[in-house]
Design goal:
The chain is α/β, with parallel strands linked by helices. It has 6 helices and 11 strands. It folds into 2 domains: 119 residues, Periplasmic binding protein-like II (D-Maltodextrin-Binding Protein, domain 2, 3-Layer(aba) Sandwich); 88 residues, Periplasmic binding protein-like II (D-Maltodextrin-Binding Protein, domain 2). Helices cover 29% and strands 29% of the residues. Strands 2-3-1-4-11-5 form a 6-stranded mixed sheet. Strand 2 and strand 3 form a beta hairpin. The chain is elongated and about 65 Å long. The structure holds 1-O-pyrophosphono-5-O-phosphono-alpha-D-ribofuranose and magnesium ion (MG). Magnesium ion binds next to loops.
């Protein structure tokens, strides 16, 4: 009996978690959903699900510890240039944007010259600023980035914007959209042939779900 399973990583908690499980469910794959467990198996498809932290997933794909993942394109752009990108999945749409306090006068990108920017996406911000010829001081923080200007840690922030409510609550305004992102299927560069064959079956099912949703 062939017992090879495709190992898929999905976000442990956070915005992608629910929609990721839902798309698998819509694809007819039922997973014993013990969220306390970090690993679960599908009952009716050769799939093993691992619940991981978003930011760790590119490294797991690179190491070949997981074969595929559902995660935000923005995470791959930040730290997964070598990871293969598969289909876009149509959910978790967001922007990665720069925002400044509402009270700050902002007309153009040059207004960020020499400023302190708090972000969890340093590579993305650096690439964007370098292309515009702007030098700024980055402060890397992992969460609640929007609080930084209010506590005097930074003059501006760069983070994910979805509904815009976090910016609004923190008296910030979005001034530059660096990129747009949504959930995608990401594929390990080291996936073997046997697992690739399972992946093709999974992709076929996901595409049917996506077609039915539009
Ligand atoms: C994310 C992101 C933004 C916010 C954007 O934070 O970092 O802060 O959501 O969404 P909105 O535009 O709909 O308000 P999250 O709440 O996931 O927490 P974290 O920053 O602590 O990771
Ligand atoms: Mg946040």
């Amino acid at each position: 009996m062939n017992t090879t399973k495709l190992r898929i990583a999905i976000q442990k908690s956070g915005r992608l978690n629910e929609d990721s499980l839902q798309i698998l469910k819509d694809a007819g794959i039922s997973i014993d959903n013990g969220k306390e467990q970090l690993k679960a198996s599908a009952r009716n498809f050769p799939l093993e699900v691992m619940y991981l932290r978003n930011g760790d997933i590119p490294q797991y794909l690179r190491d070949g510890v997981v074969d595929v993942a559902i995660l935000g394109e923005n995470v791959l752009i930040e730290k997964g240039e070598d990871i293969i990108t598969g289909d876009k999945l149509g959910f978790s749409k967001c922007r990665v944007s720069i925002a400044v306090p509402k009270s700050m006068r902002y007309n153009r990108i040059e207004d960020l010259q020499g400023k302190r920017i708090a972000t969890s996406y340093p590579n993305t911000v650096n690439a964007f600023l370098a292309e515009k010829g702007i030098t700024a001081e980055l402060h890397i923080i992992n969460g609640s980035v929007e609080i930084a200007p209010n506590i005097g840690l930074a003059d501006a922030i760069c983070d994910i914007v979805s509904s815009g409510s976090t910016l609004f609550k923190n008296n910030l305004k979005e001034v530059e959209v660096i990129l747009k992102s949504e959930a995608i299927l990401a594929i390990s560069p080291g996936i073997n042939e046997e697992r690739k064959a399972i992946l093709e079956k999974l992709q076929f099912r996901l595409r049917s779900v996506l077609n039915a949703r539009t």
